[in-house]
Prior knowledge:
Blueprint: H1 2-66, H2 70-83, H3 88-103, H4 107-120, H5 123-139, H6 143-150, H7 159-172, H8 176-189, H9 196-207
Helix pairs in contact: 1-2, 1-3, 2-3, 3-4, 3-5, 4-5, 5-6, 5-7, 6-7, 7-8, 8-9
Amino acid sequence: MAHYDLEEQEQIETLKTWWNMYGNLVTAVVASIAIAAVGWRGWSWYQGKQTAEASAVYAVLEQAAAVRDTAKVKAAAGELAEKFGRTSYAALGALQAARQSFDAGDNKTAIAQLSWAADNAKDELKDMARLRLAAIQLDEKAYDDALKNLDVAHAPAFDARFQELKGDVLAAQGKKSDARTAYKAALGKTEEKPGPARELLQQKLDSLGEAA
């Protein structure tokens, strides 16, 4: 029994020595992990709250859009951008508001809303914003700005649409050779089976005539 007590005492002394050497470090690591866990839970809660609130504002925007209340749509989109800019609802709101502004003949506001979405949206929403923005800029004859928005990295699924719109801008500038190249690239990205979109694209290419 005495031998057991001595062995136990030695283990205790060894543990004390180890703790004196590394105790502060262990405490700091444990505290850091605890703080990180609490922080992560807090951030997750905050994100969930932001998403829920943004969803409610976006619902108001959709209701206003359904009755073509442009002023209310614009206000809701502004609130989403200001308070919930990190959520996808803000980008969706900007796209919806831009459509309302464009239909109302307010291209200036539509461009501003789409520019915000192009700068702040993510993934496909960013690509959609750039395409719509470039289309309005084409109507406004702001060709260089339109090409700038089209000459950016985008998801492969949008390749055909980016190339076709680029061809439209180049054709409007009278750059037939470059437009022809863009249309051919767009055709190469579309499905080979006939369809309205492919037929229209082919018509655009044919309208440019043969290459010199």
